[in-house]
Amino acid sequence: MLDGAERAGLTQAKISRIEGADAVPTLVLLRRLTGALDASLNIALDDDREEVVFVAHPAA
Questions:
Q1: What's phi and psi for 33, nearest 5 deg?
Q2: pLDDT 10s digits, 3-58
Q3: pTM score, two decimals?
Q4: What is the 3-state secondary structure (H, E, C) of 1-60?
């Protein structure tokens, strides 16, 4: 079975760099990851708050 990195067409090393803040993911990359993980990512930014919410979709 493929892991999330493989389903997104990425290496585990690339995922590790993103997780460790050694790389800044683009919106295109975040879209690939959410698609591969069957999830949604919501980002809200304004003057006094930053919110990032990752929501896994229920298994069918």
A1: -65, -45
A2: 777 788 888 888 888 888 788 888 898 898 898 889 999 999 999 999 999 998 98
A3: 0.67
A4: CCCHHHHCCCCHHHHHHHHCCCCCCCHHHHHHHHHHCCEEEEEEEECCEEEEEEEECCCC
